[in-house]
User: Fold these one by one.
Assistant:
Number 1:
Amino acid sequence: MPLRLRFWDRKDEIKYLKAYLRGVPNSILFIYGPKSSGKSTLMKQVIKKLSPNREKLLQKYGILYYDFRSKLIRSSQSIIDLFFRIGEGEDPVVKSGVKIDENTKIAIKEGKIEPFELIEERLRESGRKNIIILDELQKLKGIYLEGSSENGRLLDELFNFFVRITKVEHLAHVIVMTSDTFFVEELYSNSSLANCAEYYLVDFFSDDIAKSVLVSERLNEVEASYVVSWCGGVPWFLERVLSKKKVLGIREAIKSLYRMVKGEVLEKLGRLWRGSEALAKKDGEVLVKVVMGSGVDMLLKDRESVERLASAEILFYDPLSGTARPQTRLHERAIKEILGL
């Protein structure tokens, strides 16, 4: 069984999010960050800390948590299957959807009940502070891009509804978590979210915090510094090294992890560049700029390449700063080796 690091040093993030959720709903909050930065774990900790015990939490807050990792998303999938549930049998505090019965489900499908109006009605009736959380939003990208289908513009309609229940009616906080920042930018533009949404970055641990984590897990200072020099503050990487150190030793554990990351980067670049030398040249030039720290042009010639490489989770793009970087320190090493830098 893999070792799990205890929740570590997210005091600033927890303080910010608790204050945000205790205030009056007035905007959509996009929590973004690179893959495996700990966004979902952080949000679950924040929920636990909203009230001192579960009973008070249940009395004070109504929480709808949509984890799209747990759903098989098809482009033709009904909004009913995504945002509603039938029956009981789940956590009384955190719900996976608005509860409806079979008759209501049929009525929604037949167009006799408008689904967003039903959700708004339930929020008004709850008598509690409502929180709606969408985790791994990018899983809905297939639905969004199929613009000609019945659900093709589902997310535009959904986010316009979120603007209504946050900024206009103040009925619920809406938190959206994703690592696909270009997708968020597209939604922001197409759903007219200007002055209706905020961004909040949840990044990897800093090097100092990562070293503290490793020392608390009984590595010495030299070992901790070596691991961080390779892995940075990626929680999943730190867990992997710690879980394998007894069998492989720290250096071999890191080598194994690096080989895996390099293999993934090679495979993804192979798929992106298959049959196109021009694309390989263009993206390759952007990768050189990123890893050498010379900066990219996100307004003109480099944007398409950055978006392509970020969608493949080779680069991470921060929409607030307008900068791109390798997904992790291991990705940076892999890119340099692959490009011969």
Number 2:
Amino acid sequence: MCFLCELNFELMIQRIQTVYLLLACLLIVLPVLLNVGWVSVSANDQLYELNSLSVTLETPDAVQKVKDVFPLTGALVVALFLSAYSIAQFKNRKFQIKLTQGAILIMLGFVALLSFYISQLQDMVEGGEAKLSPFLIIPILVIALLGLAVRGIKKDDELVRAADRLR
């Protein structure tokens, strides 16, 4: 039984779309684990920082949480679940494509939410200087990797259909 599990895992990992999906999963988890700031706005000795979990205000005296941003975290968790579950569905290619496309839509929603929170934060601090994080590239990379995974799954599906026609 264990041999069959290892065999299925080897078959799954040999597909390029599985590698793309694994990389996307790792990139989705990265901002939450590292608690990186997406944007920071400073004005009048105050520093507002937006990360995946909350908006914090840092003053010379203390650091306090101003606002929770659970929709950002929720979008990342749902996209992670869809991507990881898509890896396990390697035998059902049609369903795997739908799961991956769903993850792409969730990540697009995440980017829209992130831009909304960034604009809201900049409106909250008028006249402040905004510094965008280089980690803002992560959602775009995840969307690109998920798109490559969809393309790889479609190529596999065409290959299987071509082999079935020859039989």
Number 3:
Amino acid sequence: METKHLEGKGIADYDSKNDLLFFKVKDRDYVKSIETDNFVVDIDSEDFIVGVQIFEAATFLNLKKEALIKITKWHLEASIHENRIEVRLLFEVKIRNKIIEKNPIIMQTIQEGLPNSELICVTA
């Protein structure tokens, strides 16, 4: 099966009140979401991953909420292959005048049949 590719600029936001970290491709709207234990993946009408939300982000990433508010540049790679979602994030936060890089990888098998696709999204 052929793999579809999408590249774009994006936005990131952190809701400290609800401890929710969000990455999204600019100018692409989602039509459905797939929710797992700690995150939600948003899918657009062309079956591309166009957004990722991480619940309890401070705990999941082992960072303080204050650090997540200050995310500087970031890079998101997400793919769907044979009903397995893989999300790779690389982002920087500033803690006590030091830049700290985080690179979490999230993998999850899904029941919903989606075509193979890959997304690369970076800071707008």
